[in-house]
Write a structure and sequence with these properties.
globular; Rossmann fold; binds uridine-5'-diphosphate-xylopyranose
């Protein structure tokens, strides 16, 4: 991204201003996604930040067209009158219908949604150009970055995110970066992807390290968000021994690190610790119903041991811990072949294939959008509470209802076909989020339909750009 125009824009530089109300980010370049040696100079989609007062300067018609189109896309402030010092009341637009920001002011995690969308929902990929004639990809050099908050030395934390190149991890990293912290990502890229965080590479606040948490790692940090572990059933069942090792040895290594450098440690546990629940909805006090020798055990029991380890380090060694039990989560950057129901249904619908329901489709799940989860994780990390907390959206669907919802959202007339139910597939799941509401002041803000809309758009963009 060449945002050098930032420096030269008059007055409201998005980098230096704390109130970005008058700042527009525009893409004034061409929208041609295929390239040849003649137009390589005109590499498309290089956004420029211009002073909004300068909008009328350009008399070139073509340029005007592309400006209008891209203004709608990148004008972070147009409809939202967002300020970096926004309060929680300013998360929604004035008509209360549109979400314009994410986060919570009490932990200073509020950032404009448009900034985040700029990296996960570009109309064309920012850093890649596919030449379909020669089947070659040009990777574009990013010269500058989204604006991050300027924090004092006291406020600025060094934060380690294990699994930070994965689906959830990369959204957490985006938010922590925009908040102004220093972020170190550890990932072995089994399910994570460099592209999920490539927009931060070479940023002075960012480091990406290829490392498997199964091996010890030493670094001075203030906080550790421990996410590293494959989360989709086909992925975690692919190599169950490795999944157990990741949960057990990976968590021991990260807890050992937290103990040594006195960092606060947050474990991302899962609703799967409740197994095939006999209590509904599931509160944190429920002990669960897990088959210890079934195909899901490598993940379910792995995470249960990870929780046991976390509280053992707390009691025995005084490690400062947090535990989030994450319920089904979806959003952009899910792996298209990750095998979970949301990405499966969306990809099948976009390709016009049959939607595959496992079993009779009467099993239920409750789906949360990824921004809500990131909000909850940051709140939990920064609150003084050590018991486990459920993070999920209690909006419960049968899988058959969910298939209908995706068909409507994608507007496809695909059929539904049923396949055998997986062994030990939980029959129902819904979080009791009373604790999160009372302790964190958190509840989901994203209606499932709205999150699905963004996710469908993400997969559409990826498909159009031939990136899947
Ligand atoms: O194509 C599909 C995929 C999945 N399903 C069904 O949809 C339901 C949800 O399945 P997913 O694979 O998305 O997720 P699961 O609920 O089984 O596991 C998830 O639980 C919570 C998280 O911690 C993990 O991300 C994951 O383990 C299951 O009943 C599954 O059988 C389908 O009907 N069709």
């Amino acid at each position: 991204m060449d945002w050098n125009a930032i420096a030269s824009s008059k007055g409201n530089s998005i980098l230096s201003s704390t109130n970005t109300n008058d700042t527009n980010i525009k893409n004034s370049s061409e929208n041609n996604n295929s390239i040849n040696s003649n137009n390589i100079e005109n590499i498309p989609n290089i956004p420029k930040i211009l002073d909004s007062n300068n909008n009328d300067d350009d008399n070139d018609n073509n340029n005007k067209e592309s400006k209008i189109e891209n203004t709608n896309e990148h004008n972070f402030q147009k409809n939202c009158r967002f300020s970096w010092n926004s309060t929680d009341e300013q998360i929604f637009s004035e008509d209360e219908k549109t979400i314009i920001a994410v986060g919570h002011s009490c932990v200073k995690s509020v950032v404009p949604l448009e900034l985040l969308r700029y990296v996960y929902l570009p109309t064309k990929p920012h850093n890649r150009l596919l030449d379909s004639n020669t089947m070659t990809i040009f990777y574009l050099h990013q010269k500058s970055f989204l604006p991050v908050k300027s924090l004092s030395q006291k406020e600025k934390k060094r934060i380690l995110v294990t699994g930070g190149a994965g689906f959830v991890g990369s959204h957490l990293v985006d938010r922590l970066m925009l908040m102004g912290h220093e972020v170190i990502v550890l990932d072995n890229f089994f399910t994570g992807r460099k592209n999920n965080v490539s927009h931060w590479m070479n940023h002075p606040n960012f480091e990406l390290i290829r490392h498997d948490v199964v091996d010890p790692f030493l670094i001075e940090v203030d906080q550790i968000y421990h996410l590293a572990c494959p989360a989709s059933p086909p992925h975690y069942q692919y190599n169950p021994i490795k999944t157990v090792k990741t949960s057990v040895m990976g968590t021991i290594n990260m807890l050992g690190l937290a103990k040594r450098v006195k960092a606060r440690f947050l474990l991302t546990s899962t609703s799967e610790v409740y197994g095939d629940p006999e209590e509904h909805p599931q509160a944190e006090t429920y002990w669960g119903h897990v088959n210890p020798i079934g195909p899901r055990a490598c993940y379910d029991e792995g995470k249960r041991v990870a929780e046991t380890l976390t509280y053992s380090y707390m009691h025995q060694d005084d490690v400062d811990v947090r535990v989030a039990r994450i319920f089904n989560t979806f959003g952009p950057r899910m792996n298209e072949n990750d095998g979970r129901v949301v990405s499966n249904f969306i990809m099948q619908a976009l390709k016009g294939e049959d939607l595959t329901i496992y079993g009779d489709g009467s099993q239920t799940r409750s789906f949360q959008y990824v921004h809500d989860l990131v909000d909850g994780l940051i709140l939990l990390m920064n609150k003084d509470y050590t018991e486990p907390i459920n993070l999920g959206n209690p909006d419960e669907y049968t899988i058959r209802e969910f298939a209908e919802l995706i068909r409507n959202e994608v507007n496809c007339s695909c059929n539904i076909k049923t396949l055998p139910a997986p062994t030990d597939d939980p029959k129902k799941r819904k979080p009791d989020i009373t604790r999160a509401e009372q302790i964190l002041g958190w509840k989901p803000r994203w209606p499932v339909k709205q999150g699905i809309g963004e996710t469908v758009k993400y997969f559409q963009i990826q498909m159009e750009a031939d990136l899947l």
